[in-house]
Design a protein that fits this description.
This protein has helices spanning 33-45, 82-93, 110-120, 169-182, 238-247, and strands spanning 7-16, 19-29, 53-60, 67-70, 74-76, 101-103, 124-125, 133-135, 154-155, 187-193, 202-206, 210-214, 226-231, 250-254, 258-260. It is an alpha/beta fold. The termini are far apart. Magnesium ion (MG) binds next to loops.
Length: 269
């Protein structure tokens, strides 16, 4: 493989004490490694809390096949009331009968917020230990799936491909991640609330609706949040799902359409 076509995974993890502080991953060609490292380290250093440790890991993908996809379409809701955002997020998740189980990826910050997010989805908590399984529908007796999402292989910011509306780095990264997750075998939908205290945004994502963005799911200053995956049951191949999420590099080669809400299903529900 020539130097030009070789892709590298650049990962940053920052922590303070035993707590995770910041993390990100990019898939970049060799000539962008330097810049990407600087950007990610800068990100870690810009947190309100100073990190004790910043670890940057760079791996050549080598022969690992990369899956190229277009991003999900982005639908942005102009809705600034917390209750309305939560209700609509709930309503937009209420679709398939196969929407059965909620798995909690991880996050020290997440556990206290989980009941709230679970309620948002119409689900009930079965445990407060992590990973937490949440009851949602007829699969209640099945154990939760401890999906830990590695951001491996996600590229969010191909220059030139980004729509003018996609300006915030968190939106770009979350869209890339949600796109990867949406194409995972067995995933029905994903729900996210940002865990940044001053970033009140979250989304629901699936392949049909796209990335539906809710600007105001919590009060500013509230550092709770996280991601939850809804997976199918019966035919779920856990192994395939885990391998895809943890190992498969996904390159976002095009950005889908970005539009304001124009009649999201469940909007009035
Ligand atoms: C956005 O659409 O602006 C991003 C929402 C989710 C952010 C998740 C995070 O990075 O905390
Ligand atoms: Mg976060």
């Amino acid at each position: 493989m020539s130097h030009e076509t070789l892709l590298y995974s650049v990962r940053m993890r920052a922590s303070t004490g035993r707590s995770h502080l910041s993390g990100a991953e990019r898939l970049v060609p060799r000539d962008r490694i330097d810049l990407t490292m600087k950007e990610l380290v800068h990100r870690a250093l810009s947190k309100q809390v100073a990190p004790d440790q910043i670890v940057v890991t760079i791996d050549a993908l080598g022969d690992i096949p990369v899956r190229s996809v277009s991003s999900l379409d982005l639908v942005s809701l102009d809705m600034h009331n917390i209750t309305a955002c939560r209700r609509t997020q709930h309503a937009s998740l209420r679709t398939p009968a196969s929407l059965l189980r909620l798995s909690w990826p991880h996050s020290a910050h997440s556990s206290r917020e989980l009941p709230l997010m679970a309620a948002t989805c119409g689900a009930r908590c079965s445990s407060m230990r992590r990973p937490v399984s949440v009851r949602a529908g007829p699969i209640a007796r099945r154990p939760g799936l401890p999906v830990r999402l590695e951001r491996r292989g996600v590229q969010a910011d191909r220059p030139g491909a980004v729509s003018p509306r996609l300006t915030h780095f968190r939106t770009k990264e979350a869209l890339a991640l949600a796109t990867k997750v949406a194409y995972a075998p067995g995933i029905v939908a994903e729900l996210c609330w940002s865990d940044e205290p001053d970033y009140t945004v979250g989304y629901v994502a699936d392949r049909t609706k796209g990335y539906v963005r809710f600007p105001h799911l919590k009060q500013a200053g509230n550092g709770f949040g996280g991601r939850a995956f809804f997976v199918t049951h019966g035919d779920l191949d856990r192994n395939a799902l885990m391998v895809y999420l943890q190992e498969t590099p996904v390159l976002i080669t095009e950005i889908g359409t970005c539009r304001a809400d124009d009649g999201l299903p469940g909007r009035s529900g």
